[in-house]
Amino acid sequence: MSGSKVLLVTGGSRGIGAEVVRGAVTRGWRVAFSYVSNAAAAEAVVHEVTQKGGEAFAAQADIGSEADILRLFEAVDGRFGRLDGLVNNAGIVGAKAQVSDMSAERLERMMRVNVVGSILCAREAVRRMSATNGGHGGAIVNLSSVAATLGSPGEYVDYAASKGAIDTFTIGLAREVAAEGIRVNAVRPGLIDTEIHASGGQPDRLERLRGLIPMKREGRADEIAAAVLWLLSDEASYTTGALLDIGGGR
C-alpha cells in the first residue's frame, strides 16, 4: 500500500464523507479524513476500513480554522508524505430561518467553514499536488448543493449562497490549475438522507420534500460518494470545471 495514492476527505466521519472514505479505501487509496468533535464516529470508520485491509487515519480539525487546516495537512504529510486527491466535504447548515432573522455571527461562521475553509484546503492541496511545484498532479472534488441553483428561500439562503460560491470557485480554480496537472470538479447533491437535516433543526425534511423530487425519493450518501470517486479517478481524466447535479431530477 506504500505506493498507493493518498486522499484527504474533510468531514469524513459521517454521511457522504464517510461513504467517500469507505469507497476510496476499497479502490486502493490511502485515506486521511477530518472530523470536528465526534471522535467515536471517526474511529469507527477507521476501524471498519482497516479491518478490511485498507489504510486510513482520522485527525480532529475544524475547517473553519486556518490553524486546524494547516495541522491537518501537516498530519497527512507526516503519515503519507504525498497527496493526490482532496474532497472538500466538510460543511455546516444553520437552523431554518429567513435572511431577516440571520445574525452576523451565523453568516460569518457559514462562510468561514463552507467557503473560506474549502478554499484554504484547496490552497494547501494545490501547493502539494501541482506539477509545477514538483507534485504528481491530482484531483479536487468540492461538495456543493443543488441549493446553489434553488436559493433555499425561507430555509437557509445563507447555505445556498455559500454553495453558489463553491460553484464559482470550482470553475475558477479548475481553469487556474489545469496546466499544473490538477483537475477540479464539484458534485451538487439534492435531497440526501444524511444527518444534516436534523442538525439544521428539520428532522422531518425528507418526508416533507421527497414528493417534489421527480424520482419521488431522497438520495443515499453512497450514491453521492460514487460520483465523487468517479471524479477522483482516471476515468474522469478529461473532466475539469464540471458541476455534476445528483438530485433525482430536481
From TrEMBL:
Organism in which the protein naturally occurs: Aquamicrobium soli
Gene3D superfamilies reported in the protein's UniProt record: NAD(P)-binding Rossmann-like Domain
Cytoplasm found in the keyword field: no
Family the UniProt entry places it in: Belongs to the short-chain dehydrogenases/reductases (SDR) family.
SUPFAM superfamilies to which the protein is assigned, alphabetical: NAD(P)-binding Rossmann-fold domains (SSF51735)
Keyword terms of this UniProt record: Oxidoreductase
Domain Ketoreductase: 5-194
InterPro entries xrefs: KR_dom, NAD(P)-bd_dom_sf, Sc_DH/Rdtase_CS, SDR_fam
PROSITE patterns per the UniProt record, alphabetical: ADH_SHORT
The protein's name in its UniProt record: SDR family oxidoreductase
